Amino acid sequence: MKNLVFLIILVTSFSIAQKNKEQNKNRINNNSATTSETFLIDVNRLKLPINNSGVIADVVINGVEGGRYDSKTVFFSAGFLLSGYSNGTMWTNAIASASRIQDYLKGQVNTEPGDPRNLVYAVFASDTPFGNSWQSWKDAVDIGADFYDGNNDGIYNPVDLNSNGIWDANEDKPDILGDITTYCVYNDGVDTSLRRFNDVTPKGIEIRQTIFAYSDSSQNTLNNTIFVRYKIVNRGTVSSVMDSVYFSFWADPDVGNYVDDLVGCDTLLDAGFVYHNAPDGEFGNAAPTVLTSILQGPYYYMPGETFIDNNSNGIYDAGIDTPIDTAYNRKGILRGIEIMPGARNQNMSSFIHYMSSHPSQGDPNTSLEARSYLLGKNKFGTPIDPCNWPFGSVTGVNCSAVNPVFMYSGNPAANTGWLNTMGTDQRTMVNTGPFKLKQNEPVEIIGALLVGRKDDPFSSFYEARRIASYVGSYYRSNFGQYPLGVEEEPSMNVSNFELYQNYPNPFNPVTKIKYQIPETGLVSLKVYNILGEVVTTIVNEIKTAGSYTIDFNAGNLVSGVYIYELKTSFKSSSKKLIILK
User: Fold this and answer.
1) Cα separation, 203 vs 304, whole angstroms
2) What's the pTM value of the predicted model, to 2 decimals?
3) Are the beta carbons of 171 and 160 closer than 8 angstroms?
4) CA distance readout (Å), 330 to 157, 181, 265, 479, 566
5) I need a surface site. Which of 247, 286, 390, 473 has the fewest CB within 10 A?
């Protein structure tokens, strides 16, 4: 039985001034300085406590624990699983506290746990430039945190060079991604004898974790969301290359009364979710949907798939091999986008759920059982059969056509597809891979935890999907322009497919793009550079038949000629747009 204390925050009666006062009070309570061993992410409706060894939600702060939304529990715990091969030997480790798996210690690899720098560092976008939090970030940088290097000297030194009292672009600042940004580092140094998987030794893996959130509520989206960035580093103490690595965004969501939670996944959003199909004992009829999504998967190179291996050596050689695809590492609007031609970002490779203490589909007891879950199989390594599965059923489609590695990929609101039918205390795993971890070559994975809540459980389900779609657009804008494309309410009376010329054109930086579709289906609207590379995805979701207008903000793109393409399952069309800055 989980004993959770409910934090009651009465927000509806506050005036704007009172709300600001309360936020400042919370900020002081959580972080009277700029560093601590625990910290409460508390700038919007979703509030998550964290600690300096990677645990999310399952952390006690001032007698309160758990992730909260509208003052009620939505997350008991969150973290990750990681598995791969080092020198031919398989291993799995994790931070999954609800399953009693905590294999990571605070601090970097081969440093003392008692190092005073092993803290959670926090900086607010509203903090005084060059003030205490900016100065404390020096210690964070010493243990791996990123920063904006304004003067390009490779050293973080936040100094007001021209003494004008404001930050200028040639001056250093912390890696501020949200209204609140936090950083900590931890490593897989827990002794083998203390692990749940006691056949796994430390592998010299370091996780540099950034969690950030926004208070913006203009579109009722970012204020429901918290972002998590994992920078995974193989420090090379065991193996210079780790192969066949898989990563999972792991969560133990508890939507109010957790004993009747249901799960599902959305392959278009690279997401898993937990929902109710009836009123909840805590939230009432307005039971929310909790969603965990991969925004940026790990990059990987594959001959013949992501590049043409012209010299047949099995690796991508710039200037020799021909790139087929491109991977991106989005670092924020100030630090830019790292572009990796010849590679690709992995999407969700599988989605799995398991249940608390269940004998056949419960918490993994061995590293092999955990890896089986990471591969989208049951804990014994057997592929799952949607046609013969005791915890779910397939409705309205041929069960033999359902992809078994994406559990419960149906639409519960429409009662179609593969659906979970056994409500219980759930764990979710949004998996991605494979990829490699090469010595001191970080792999950055970005995900989002979000909540959608409307008047009833199924409208909450659609609300979570809506938010996830916008969050994906915000990520693709490199966390710089939100919303990337704002759609007007669609007109439904259309009979033909049409993509209109954007207006104005040329433009700087906002233009309108109008399109119409005669049938409901998956719609993709992407912008390409003159090399044919995707630079922005504006729309990638299911749309009902109708006419749509989008305000497209190209603030993160350079001047030039671009192509925008509208594509559906039955037709596509493209036109040129010109950015002049």
Assistant:
1) 31
2) 0.80
3) yes
4) 23, 16, 25, 8, 24
5) 390
